[in-house]
Design goal:
The structure holds two protein chains of two kinds. Chain A is α/β, with parallel strands linked by helices. Chain A is built from 17 helices and 22 strands. In chain A, helix 12 runs parallel beside helix 14. By secondary structure, chain B is mainly α. In chain B, the strands form three sheets. In chain B, strands 1-2 form a two-stranded antiparallel ribbon. The chains are: A alpha/beta, B mainly alpha.
């Protein structure tokens, strides 16, 4: 066994990112490490590369226990890492990048001729014949990835960690990269491959380990897995267990409220059509990176569309930016509430009235009494747990922060509200409250678009579920068609359409 | 009201301590006499001489609240002073000259604001451009000379008196009070703080961050124009090389002494203005206390460091802890005595 991890545990304040995880890597294999966001993949890798120090457990390389304190130390031990964002210097030449930190010298000066030759030889091993004197930044991401791999292998040479290496590559480049990885595997390297693209996992890896919520779920030969079982492992549901499917009552044909046609942007989301009825909840399902959030961002004007238009019963809508979308009665509670949602240093009251105030304009301040009334009523209605409305939002827990962001939008009374992962990182109690709130809003005639990785959640709230895969809207499930199985089948299927 | 006082307490305490310290070396520091309908005394001098920095500090507070910085204000002062002196000596009269100068300040702010908000240049770099170019522009206007003028109405702005107090004092007090009212009686203050803390989230909630940012840099330009007018009027001439030289740094220092975070967000204009008064009190106090002039800059630096350390949150928590320990000790000793 090349690398052997036993009961690895890593805690952060408030969460256990890794809880007794075991992981083995043989030499001469590609081992895929899978799991949804927050499953603990990157924490595991950071413990391996010395970016984090583990709290408990052992890591043994070639039988000897190691405890790297930095990525430099991990490299010396033999563990090299290539990240999605290549961590090389684009303004140096390819040769300088490959030999950075161990330049070849002659009489104490850098010997560029010898470096050029050494660099060419290194890349020759990978079937790459490029001008090593050119700046690295001038080459495509795929070439940069291979240069990064060449550098990591030359430095380390036992374990190679590839963290989402294909996220910004096209299909041909992916194949080029995989050829290189297979060659390295055949040479006896152990490769850990992290990816969200399941096709690539099946294509490249020999074994698969799935993590979920910081725990080890399964390790198995890739050939013994079906796509379906793999997704079950990742999402933590089995198809056999019939989950209570409790869709909101459908009142037959509903009034069409919004109609988006041909909405899309190159390399973000393929053009899609979407009709939203009055009082309807549409769910967006799909794995991470499938274009769920990007679709929502197009609808809210956060990203400019390259094609398509939006209409309601009165005609064409201007969705050129968030302000325009808000003027049309749209709302968007984003996925990353720390970065895009809350204004941490402002109070709960100020966060709640912020959107309303921005819409009224700066010259018409909301009277303080009205602000207090709004804040108090939403703290009560959404059950925001706080010592008072003047508390800094940054001091609240995740669930309560999410409620404050929701309160901001509800105060503006939108007709169409987009909720991106409304319950991520929220405890069970708040989770149920937010789903309950969704039902309540629909009762009042609001239309919602809910994006979620949790199938139970989508099934509990949606009248209709749209499934995305690889930046395409691939399926639409209505009413009784919605089930965990049908959604997963649509995510997993390689056909264009599912019935 | 209680909240405002609590916010300003560190600055007020620093200012009071400083005045007490200066009074030890120069007992007449607080004495004020009425001479020819004018109040005269070192304190009045402080109130007058702090005008340029106080004016700049008002605008700089807003810029820093948006998580920005404006290094070009000294140069903008020079431009505006030159424009006003040029217009006055060309016979346009004071109102036109002032309007032209203020227009020039707003234009400078518009340039900075567009670079920051639309082009997306970091404020430090964006305003560095005008900091360098601005003096060149001012020199072109004055043709490299010190452009003097004799217009008594313009000179009144710098050295005149109204109800006993110098005109520059009235100007900065008015600007500070009006700006504070504008910020706190409308929603501007809240919206500026919001984009300073989290521009992405604010924009997503519908705050027009681009327009607000440009407006803030233009307000800064307006303040710099007034400061430029005051300085030019005071010496009855526009000096493109020296007007407002390094004053951007004093203005930033005033904002920092005022306890405003350079990371943006919550701001207090009153605290920044007190910061400007503290800087001026140090300068004048050192001179009056009779230290040789070579020591001035060094003593000023030491005092600033002491004030900043005393205001730091770290010091605050240590102080709080120390006081608690002292109370525990007293309690214990009290029990033992019983």
């Amino acid at each position: 066994m090349l690398l052997s991890i036993r009961s690895l545990t890593k805690s952060f304040p408030g969460t256990k990112a890794l809880d007794g995880v075991d992981f083995d890597l043989r030499s001469g294999e590609v081992h895929a490490l899978l799991g949804e966001n927050g499953a603990g993949k990157s924490t595991l890798i950071k413990c391996l590369t010395g970016a984090y120090q583990r709290n408990a457990g052992t890591i043994a390389l070639d039988g000897a226990e190691i405890e790297p304190q930095s990525s430099g130390e991990a490299q010396e031990l033999g563990i090299g890492t290539v990240y999605q964002e290549v961590n090389l210097l684009p303004n140096l030449t390819v040769a300088q990048n490959l030999l950075f930190g161990r330049e070849l010298r002659r009489f104490g000066l850098i010997d560029s001729r010898a470096m050029r030759a050494a660099a060419q030889e290194m890349l020759g091993d990978y079937g790459l014949d490029i001008n090593v004197d050119r700046d690295l930044g001038g080459y495509s991401v795929a070439i940069r990835q291979i240069v990064a791999i060449a550098r990591a292998v030359a430095l380390s040479g036992k374990v190679l960690i590839l963290d989402e290496p294909t996220a910004s590559l096209d299909a041909r480049e992916v194949q080029m990269l995989f050829t290189v990885v297979r060659r390295l595997r055949d040479r006896g390297l152990g490769v850990i491959f992290v990816s969200h693209f399941l096709d690539q996992v099946f294509d490249l890896s020999d074994r698969v380990t799935v993590l979920r919520n910081g725990r080890h779920v399964v390790t198995t030969e890739t050939a013994a897995l079906t796509r379906m079982t793999l997704i079950e492992h990742m999402l933590g549901r089995t198809l056999q267990d019939e989950v209570l499917h409790n869709p909101p009552p459908d009142r037959g044909k509903r009034e069409k409220m919004l109609e988006f046609s041909g909405f899309g942007r190159r390399a973000v989301v393929e053009p899609f059509d979407l009709v939203i009825g009055k009082g309807e909840v549409v769910g967006l399902a799909g794995l991470l990176g499938s274009g769920r959030t990007e679709s929502a961002e197009l609808l809210f004007g956060l990203r400019a569309t390259q094609s398509g238009e939006a209409r309601d019963q009165n005609g064409k809508l201007d969705l050129s930016g968030p302000r325009a979308a808000i003027a049309q009665g749209f709302g968007f509670a984003p996925e990353d509430r720390k970065l895009d949602g809350i204004v941490a240093d402002l109070s709960i009251r100020e966060n709640i009235i912020l959107g309303l105030q921005a819409r009224r304009g700066w010259m018409r301040p909301i009277p303080r009494a009205e602000q207090n009334r709004l804040a108090d009523s939403y703290i009560k209605r959404l059950d925001i747990r706080t010592s008072g409305k003047e508390k800094r939002v940054g001091e609240l827990s995740g669930g309560n922060q999410q409620k404050v962001v929701l309160a901001r939008w509800l105060a503006m009374n939108p007709r169409f509200l987009i909720l991106d992962e409304p319950t991520r990182g929220i405890d069970v109690g708040a989770h149920a409250e937010i789903l309950h709130l969704v039902h309540e809003l629909v009762e009042q005639g609001m239309s919602l678009l809910v994006i979620s990785s949790e199938l139970d959640e989508l099934m509990a709230v949606s009248n209709r579920v749209i499934v995305l895969r690889d930046r395409c809207h691939v399926a639409e499930l209505v009413g009784h068609e919605i089930s965990g199985e049908s959604i997963m089948r649509a995510i997993a299927s390689t056909e264009e359409k599912v019935e | 009201m209680h909240g405002t006082l609590k916010r300003l307490a560190p600055q007020l305490i620093a200012l009071a301590t400083l005045i007490a310290l200066v009074s030890v070396f120069y007992p007449g520091f607080l004495s004020v006499s009425l001479n020819d309908g004018r109040l005269v005394g070192p304190v009045v001098d402080v109130l007058k001489r702090s005008a340029p920095v106080a004016l700049l500090a008002v605008g700089m507070t807003l810029v820093i609240a948006t998580r920005g910085i404006d290094l070009s204000v000294g140069a903008t002062m020079a431009i505006c002073g030159a424009v006003a002196a040029y217009a006055v000596s060309a016979g346009y009269g004071l109102p036109v000259a002032m309007l032209l100068a203020i227009g020039a300040g707003l234009l400078a702010g518009l340039w900075n604001g567009c670079l920051v908000a639309i082009v997306g240049v970091q404020p430090f770099v964006a305003t560095l451009i005008l900091m360098t170019a601005g003096r060149g522009i001012a020199q072109l206007i004055t043709e490299g000379r010190i452009l003097t003028f004799t217009d008594p109405a313009f000179a009144f702005l710098g050295s005149g008196n109204l109800l006993g107090l110098p005109m520059p004092t009235w100007i900065w007090i008015c600007v500070a009070v009006l700006t504070t009212l504008l910020m706190r009686r409308t929603a501007l203050g809240l919206l500026i703080e919001a984009i300073g803390i989290n521009r992405r989230a604010s924009a997503l909630a519908g705050v027009n961050a681009v327009v607000l940012l440009i407006a803030v840099y233009m307000a800064m330009g307006f303040c710099a124009a007034l400061a430029g007018l005051v300085v030019t009027a005071d010496i009855r001439g526009a000096d493109a090389n020296n007007a407002g030289l390094w004053l951007e740094l004093d203005a930033i220092l005033a904002v920092v002494i005022g306890g405003n975070s350079l990371l943006g967000g919550r701001f207090s204009i009153a605290a920044s203005v007190i910061g400007a008064l503290i800087i001026q009190t140090i300068s004048i106090g050192i001179r009056l206390a009779g230290f040789p002039s070579e020591y001035n800059l060094l003593i000023k630096a030491v005092l600033v460091v002491v004030i900043l350390v005393l205001q730091s949150p770290r010091f605050g928590t240590e102080w709080h802890y120390w006081r608690q320990q002292l109370q525990f000790k007293r309690l214990r000793e009290g029990k033992i005595a019983k």
